[in-house]
Amino acid sequence: MLTGVTPPAPQHAATALRHLLDLLAQGAAAEEFDRPAATARQAGAPAAELAGIAEATTVALRIRRTLSQHRVREAQLTALFDTASDLAALRDLDAVLRAIVHRAKLLLGTDVTYLSLNDDAAGDTYMRVTDGSVAEAFQRVRLGMGEGLGGLVAQTARPYATGDYAADPRFHHTTTIDSAVLDEGLRAILGVPLRLGSRIIGVLYAADRAPREFTAGEVALLSSLADHAAIAIDGARLLEETRAALVDLNAASETIRTHSEAMRRAEEAHDQLTDLVLRGGGADDVAAALADILDGGILIHDADGAELARARTAPQPPPTPAVAASRARGRAVPLNGTWVCAVLAGPELLGSIALTGRAGLADADRLLFERASVVTALLMLLRRSVAETEDRVRGELLGDLLSRTGDPGTLTARARRLGVDLGRLHSVFVAHSDAAPRHRLLAAAARSAQTRNGLAGLHHDHVVLVAPSDTPGPDAQALAAELGQAAGCPVTVGAAGPATGPAELPDAHSEADRCLSALRTLGHTGSGGATADLGFIGVLLGDQADLGGYVTRTLGPVLDYDTARGTDLVTTLDAYFAQGTSLTRTKTLLHVHVNTVVQRLERIGRLLGPDWNEPPRALEIQLALRLHRLTRRRRAAGDARQTKFVVTRPINPVTGSE
User: Fold this and answer.
1) Among 289-293, 361-365, 395-399, 640-644, which is the least confidently predicted range?
2) What is the per-residue pLDDT across 493-537, written as a single tens digit (0 to 9) for each?
3) How far are the Cα atoms of 29, 182, 426, 469, 504 from residue 644, in angstroms, in the given order?
4) How far is CA 599 from CA 35, 569, 596, 606, 613, in A?
5) Phi and psi torsions of 313, nearest 5°
6) DSSP letter, residue 80
7) How far is the C-alpha of 12 from the C-alpha of 658, rounded, in Å?
């Protein structure tokens, strides 16, 4: 201590220090820290004390800056924690992205914040969410990798900042990006990468519309927020994928359940239909059951298009194109509101099923309908097996009957076991078609034979049918029409009979065969008839011709007229033809006036019909006249009781001699 020097009073320094500490505790503004020094100066504090107060003020300001930085850092950390908490609570990806951008705007206090995501497929980054943006073009901009500030951040995975983007030469400026930034009015831009490990998924931006410099703390803060955001984005993406997977799983489970239910229903229906067939049910039973199961109309056709069964619908032919399409695909196909499924046994087409009234058919019902075709195939195969066995037995019996093979009693017994009573009158029908395949014609004849309680088969290369009938001619006509419709082309049928017992059937078959040949020769293809329907040709063909019946059918009206009135028109008619249809020679032969001949011929025309003088009819009449003359001669010779006799050789239609 120096002698004579008065030591400084410390009260001014202590007061100033307490004031500075109070200011630090209050968090006062920086300018407030100059007041303690000013107060001490005004109080006359010595220079040394004032210097100590100034030094203390400098330390207090440094402490204040440090505390301020800590408070800012604490606030930022709190904000980051709050952000992480908020992001963790969000589940929707769009909500996460909006929350990230909005929190960045609040933390950095910038005019605009936005976020872009990388598009790996397109190789660029696109704007996804913005906050504070007003320009539509800016909100839709896409940046190629390396283009602009954001493209460079996405490419290099490093943060970039600029105080004035338009004037910054570090970036690859493009017209699209620069015009979008200009529309938004942005100057200062900070961009940081969104990282997931080593992968960059996008860029987070903060921007101002006025030039400024971003501090390292702001860059670090936005980078920290970007790290939280990337994790939240990935979590939201994983959650979204999990949700989608759960939805897919639920859908798959529902699909499996529905499919299982459809399979169970199809199997039950299949078992029901199969059991129905195995118990002996027919096509009608299957059609009715299937119509109930599918709640629609059912038609079953065979391979030739013949209807086998129908339930709850009107008859209709099978749609051939749809059957062909179903056969090719092995699936049911729709056609004009009707579902059609081919019935197959391997590659062989057995027939088809049609489902009507169900234009919209669900997959389950479609599967059931297709399963029904399998059952129908089983039914058709069983039917065919039974039919083939029965047809073979019937065909063998038919061959034995027509070939005079076996004892008549044995043949009669065999026929009785098949439901055929040979004690009844039977006619023999021989069918032929130039267009229809023989197997199709035989199948149609077999069906007709079953409905008539008869027999059908092949004999001497012709389809032959033996059935109960005492009118072979009309029945042959009906059978020709029936078989023609079934075969889809003309069928000619020759008939003979009736015959009783096995002994008469071979001769009837021979006559029916000759009748068929005559029908075809005469151009009567597609028709049917017996020898009696062929006029004098039938007389010539018949082994046991009914000559009296032929005369009656041809001249009956004239003979009846002569008998009733005592006239002799038949003699006039005979003379007219004998004289070559000359009126003059006829009247001379009869010794009557020509007008009498004309009047008699007019009467004959009214009795026989207007075509009696046409060549075909005239030939028939002349033959009948000669047979009538021959009959009268034999009657005059004492054989009056014989009106039916056997002709073993043809009669000459001109001379009347054998």
Assistant:
1) 640-644
2) 999 889 888 888 888 888 888 888 778 766 778 899 887 776 655
3) 153, 125, 21, 22, 18
4) 167, 10, 5, 11, 15
5) -160, 160
6) H
7) 178
